[in-house]
Model the fold of this input.
Amino acid sequence: MTDPTLTSVLDGEGTPFEVDGVSLLIRPPTPEEYDDAMNIQALAYRKALALPEIRDLGDEPCSDAERESYEAMIASAEAEFKEAEDGSDRKREAAEMSARLKRALERRTLAEELASDRSTLARDRYLTSRLLCDRTGRKILDPKAKNYVEQWAAIPPRVKDAARSAVWTELGKVRTAPFSLERLLGPKSA
Done:
């Protein structure tokens, strides 16, 4: 499909991945699951920044790996800027993204980096616990089950870690699904 809607993304088949020869799937999140995940990430970020061992790193610059990651994103935005047509929204957005990333990198601290890592892991674990399916799309875990905590604990860390890239793919699909008022409200009547 060349022009997916959010509905088609949410109704999609999900993103497959494999661990130890077992095919698994991360299904698309519902709007509620997506919002819950973003709230969990924000709360986990604030909680991590409040920890003394992280807060004490607030004056330290981010790691070299983090700096390289930002520099790669900046280079990507600058390449997008160069490729975009003069005067286009795409060119303006690429310039804004590059400037925003440069400002963020200048201010980025090791404390923020570590808090971000922890909060992203919390978000990904939440989504994995809700979206993990077998290869046919059948949910593996039931958050409403009395033994849900035991179900989650029985999933090996390597499965939870392998699921993260599939979670990121599904989040990317949701975040980039096009929007139009006509789709939302229907075509204008004459």
